[in-house]
Amino acid sequence: MKGIFENISDPDSAAEAAVELFGAKAATAVAYCALQARTDQRNEDYKFWFETFCRLTGLPSMHIAH
User: Considering the domain boundaries, does residue 12 fall inside one?
Assistant: First the structure.
């Protein structure tokens, strides 16, 4: 899904765009993006989507070392 958001480079803006696109299911959509990136071993994409997920859910940001 990052292709849809290719001009967005920060998790805050991605979270806003996800809410506009997916409404109440934005966190779920972003979680799937993070999971797919992790499965594909795209670590930078995973970090991006995980941080976006944190913004949407109110979870504290985590610094991921992988």
Answer: yes
